[in-house]
Amino acid sequence: MRGSGSPSGLLTPDLFASRPLENNFNFSFGRVAFDDGQQVDSKLSGLVASKKRKGPSDPRTALEAAKKKRVRMNGLDEEKKAEIVEKDAWLNAKKKAHGEKVRDDESLLLKTLKRKKKTKLKSEKEWNERLEGVQHGKEMRQKKREANLQKRRDGKKDKKNKVKGSKVKKPAKKVKRPGFEGSFRSKAK
């Protein structure tokens, strides 16, 4: 029915119709995880891509973490320290093999921080020079504008003074009528 305002019964499903119960027993109560950190997906058909835990991305926090680690290591006994150093060496080797970057060398992190600070200062200096250049350009254009306006004012004053000073009464000319500009005398004399 057109124009009745109600949609046809074919387009909308009956929400209150009885549905057969679906027997879905495809669920699990826990996760299957292996020692290397990989997990099996819910259907037990493949592995879930594990989220890589990366260290701090910026050099400052990486440096702080490395310093904290060094302080913590200094507080441990020699046997425990050697065990942790070996474990870290293996972990770092594994990370490097997977293509991850290992940022735990304090001297390199300090160099990186200094380099970043230097580039930041350079960029700031260039930006300030650019702003000064823009300001200088504005001032120069303003000065030029003022000079041009002053020149125009002076020109108008000079013109007025010239007009006032040069007003000399000239003898009145005879008003000529159109069609009679020439004289009756012949011009070929």
From TrEMBL:
<dbReference type="InterPro" id="IPR029190">
    <property type="entry name" value="Rrp14/SURF6_C"/>
</dbReference>
<dbReference type="GO" id="GO:0042274">
    <property type="term" value="P:ribosomal small subunit biogenesis"/>
</dbReference>
<feature type="compositionally biased region" description="Basic and acidic residues">
    <location>
        <begin position="121"/>
        <end position="157"/>
    </location>
</feature>
<dbReference type="GO" id="GO:0003677">
    <property type="term" value="F:DNA binding"/>
</dbReference>
<feature type="compositionally biased region" description="Basic residues">
    <location>
        <begin position="158"/>
        <end position="177"/>
    </location>
</feature>
<dbReference type="InterPro" id="IPR007019">
    <property type="entry name" value="SURF6"/>
</dbReference>
<dbReference type="GO" id="GO:0003723">
    <property type="term" value="F:RNA binding"/>
</dbReference>
<feature type="region of interest" description="Disordered">
    <location>
        <begin position="46"/>
        <end position="69"/>
    </location>
</feature>
<dbReference type="Pfam" id="PF04935">
    <property type="entry name" value="SURF6"/>
</dbReference>
<dbReference type="GO" id="GO:0005730">
    <property type="term" value="C:nucleolus"/>
</dbReference>
<feature type="domain" description="Ribosomal RNA-processing protein 14/surfeit locus protein 6 C-terminal">
    <location>
        <begin position="25"/>
        <end position="162"/>
    </location>
</feature>
<dbReference type="GO" id="GO:0042273">
    <property type="term" value="P:ribosomal large subunit biogenesis"/>
</dbReference>
<keyword id="KW-0539">Nucleus</keyword>
<protein>
    <recommendedName>
        <fullName>Ribosomal RNA-processing protein 14/surfeit locus protein 6 C-terminal domain-containing protein</fullName>
    </recommendedName>
</protein>
<feature type="region of interest" description="Disordered">
    <location>
        <begin position="117"/>
        <end position="189"/>
    </location>
</feature>
<comment type="similarity">
    <text>Belongs to the SURF6 family.</text>
</comment>
